[in-house]
Amino acid sequence: NGWSCSFNGDDEAVINGKVYEIYRGYESGSRGNYGIKCREKEVER
């Protein structure tokens, strides 16, 4: 989709200019699928 994505380390990603936290873990009820999720990080301005 043309978005840029870069990783600033093991727990942070920048997607389309926004900083996201990465957190890994098993979802309950997902049949054991291991996922990496990103959520928008609160940026102090």
TrEMBL record:
This is DUF4318 domain-containing protein. The lineage of its organism: Bacteria, Bacillati, Bacillota, Clostridia, Eubacteriales.
